[in-house]
Amino acid sequence: MKRALISGVTGQDGAYLAELLLAKGYEVHGIKRRASSFNTDRIDHLYQDPHDPDRRFYLHYGDLTDATNLIRIIQHVQPDEIYNLGAQSHVQVSFETPEYTANADALGTLRMLEAIRILGLTDKTRFYQASTSELYGLVKESPQTETTPFHPRSPYGVAKLYAYWIAVNYRESYGLYACNGILFNHESPLRGETFVTRKITRALARIHQGLDKCLYLGNLDAKRDWGHARDYVEAQWLMLQQPEPEDFVIATGVQHSVREFVTRAAAELGIRLDWQGHGVEERGIVVAAPDESAMRPGQCVVAVDPRYFRPAEVDTLLGDSSKARAKLGWSARTSFDELVSEMMHSDLTEARRDAYVNSGGFRTLRNRE
Ligand code: NDP
Ligand code: GDR
């Protein structure tokens, strides 16, 4: 039985990947951070009783900023494969916490690699590094491939640039089987609630249910290549099953703007947005409201709030994953419309439940930022 270790197992990708690897018969170990409130919502369904003799899913307390802890976990697990998904992964937050982001995302990757080397596992353990399209930042060519030059635009992107190169360096220096998956944005109903897609579907669902009034966003013209996380974790696994370690771009090859995402998500709810500008609202400019047929008096749907603008923005990303198609036999299965629909309906179910709870006199959270 193969043994895998996943850092960031409590995150979006960690949850999908743990599910995938368990389905493939792996023994799966995950690193979770100690938190004062529960942080295992996404993987609770995978939990197994410690007394179960057939147990294949284990969690270990750990942190990418703690080298000795990583060494101890890796020594104990002796993994065949490590998926380094743990990171402070929010681009805008990285401008607020640049040092922590560098510590977890850049040095955290180095700590993992050093642990493999110190423990003499370079010939046994294969290593996946969660690299990102944010490396391209100020894009030099479109679409972006494995050879497009990098120009990161945030402390997150810069930290991930170090992580990318240190993985390459350990491959070249020590013969470690290390791969960078340069993944473009991928989303799902498990996406963190402050990333733009989930923020949109969650807020629209709550507006639809009368729980909130307005969705405040930043740059509506940013363009991204959005895929489904379920498809992308399969590529992560495939990268570690090849004869030689290589780096791969993983993307859909289709691009949409934030504005288009909002329009498509609203359409799922039967709301047609009118983007002609609807005056000034307290925190920003109202840029979209439902057309007359669906509009309730005074209802605002989308407003721009400058607090969500970033000090430096990545305006456009579009990936070309021809190499992954040719060498891994991988291509994205979920279309943009299917992705938006799945996320919208998942959040609608949640909002309906919240509306029901509210109707009983309890208050649920308003939009998360
Ligand atoms: P999430 O933000 O959903 O998950 C991040 C995970 O990392 C969480 O489990 C989090 O734990 C954990 N984590 C954060 N800080 C630390 C730390 N100091 N030590 C250990 N674990 C930590 O990210 P995704 O699942 O979306 O992304 C997975 C990886 O892929 C990340 O590295 C991200 O940067 C990268 N990536 C993501 C893309 C995307 O579009 N989703 C695209 C390209 C790359 P906790 O639950 O406690 O917060
Ligand atoms: P990104 O994802 O920065 O691409 O990083 P995010 O969803 O945060 O932003 C995408 C684009 O939308 C614009 N935007 C907003 N973003 C947020 N979060 N909130 C808003 O209100 C808002 N309004 C407009 C942003 O400016 C940006 O242009 C994600 C993360 O998962 C990274 O970890 C990963 O590496 C990259 O994707 C690929």
Overall spatial form: globular
Give me the side-by-side strand order of the main sheet: 3-2-1-4-5-6-11
| Range of strand content | 15-25%
N-to-C SSE series? EHEEHEHHEHEEHEEEHEEHEEEHH
The radius of gyration is 21 Å
The overall pLDDT average reads 94
Q: What's the total count of β strands?
A: 15
Distance between the termini: 42 Å
**Largest sheet: number of strands, sense, barrel closure:** 7 strands, parallel
Q: Helicity level, as a percent range?
A: 25-40%
Structural class: alpha/beta
Tally the helices.
10
Query: Uncertain segments of ≥5 residues (pLDDT<50)?
Result: none
Unique bound compounds: NADPH dihydro-nicotinamide-adenine-dinucleotide phosphate, guanosine-5'-diphosphate-rhamnose
Keywords: Lyase, NADP
Catalytic activity: GDP-alpha-D-mannose = GDP-4-dehydro-alpha-D-rhamnose + H2O
Family: Belongs to the NAD(P)-dependent epimerase/dehydratase family. GDP-mannose 4,6-dehydratase subfamily.
Pfam families: GDP_Man_Dehyd (PF16363)
Descriptive labels:
16% strand, GDP_Man_deHydtase, GDP-mannose 4,6-dehydratase, four-stranded mixed sheet, binds NADPH dihydro-nicotinamide-adenine-dinucleotide phosphate, NAD(P)-bd_dom, 10 helices, binds guanosine-5'-diphosphate-rhamnose, alpha/beta, 15 strands
How does this structure look, described?
The structure is a single chain. The chain is of the alpha/beta class. The protein is 37% helix and 16% strand. The chain is built from ten helices and 15 strands. It has a seven-stranded parallel beta sheet, with helices on both faces. A four-stranded mixed beta sheet has the order 8-15-14-13. Strand 5, helix 5 and strand 6 form a beta-alpha-beta unit. The model has no long low-confidence stretch (mean pLDDT 94). Bound molecules: NADPH dihydro-nicotinamide-adenine-dinucleotide phosphate and guanosine-5'-diphosphate-rhamnose (GDR). NADPH dihydro-nicotinamide-adenine-dinucleotide phosphate binds next to helix 1 and strand 5. Its cofactor is NADP(+). This is GDP-mannose 4,6-dehydratase. It catalyses: GDP-alpha-D-mannose = GDP-4-dehydro-alpha-D-rhamnose + H2O. Belongs to the NAD(P)-dependent epimerase/dehydratase family. GDP-mannose 4,6-dehydratase subfamily.
